Amino acid sequence: MSYRVIDVRGDVGLRAEGKTIEECFVNAGLGLYSLITDINLVRAEEKKEITLSEQTFEDMLVSFLNELIFQFDAYGFIGRTIKVDIKENTLRAEVYGETFNPEKHERKLLVKAATYHNLVLKKENSHWTAEIIFDI
Questions:
Q1: How far is residue 15's CA from residue 86's CA, in Å, rounded to a whole number?
Q2: What does the alpha-carbon distance between residue 36 and residue 20 come to, in Å, rounded to a whole number?
Q3: What is the pTM of this model?
Q4: How far apart are CA 85 and CA 75, in angstroms?
Q5: CA dist., res. 112 & res. 106, Å (int)
Q6: Is the dihedral of CA 54, 13, 22, 40 positive or negative?
Q7: Which of 76, 96, 99, 129 could form an S-S bond across to 81 if both were Cys, CB 3.0 to 4.6 Å?
Q8: Predicted pLDDT at 89
Q9: Which residues of the chain have pLDDT under 70?
Q10: 10 in the Ramachandran plot: left (φ > 0), alpha (ψ -120 to 50) or beta?
Q11: pLDDT the model gives residue 10
Q12: What b-and-e string marks burial along 46-60, b requiring 16 or more CB atoms within 10 Å of the CB?
């Protein structure tokens, strides 16, 4: 896992990295989940499939993370393992996890949304980096 929390006043930020854009998105998703709970306690019992299309990779990243937040808010689904495939303007993801259980899973932050504020998504040489700020 290649992600870490970055210091942001009033909200929370995350820096995710990967050798491919897909790996960068996976690490951003896992980083998001780690803000919500200890993902080491999450079991991969269910699978959620996500498909979305956007014009830019930046839009795709924000939409992807907001869909993960929606799945948690609406259905209590928290992921542990993520697989991402990006072809042109379409992202397909499989997220493996389970329903959040407050007796089993520690509740950390209440993440409301991924934002475009100071959003960074760039490729340097053969390495992708994303920095994203979440409303909490």
A1: 20
A2: 25
A3: 0.95
A4: 24
A5: 17
A6: negative
A7: 96
A8: 94
A9: 1
A10: left
A11: 80
A12: eebebeeeeeebbbb
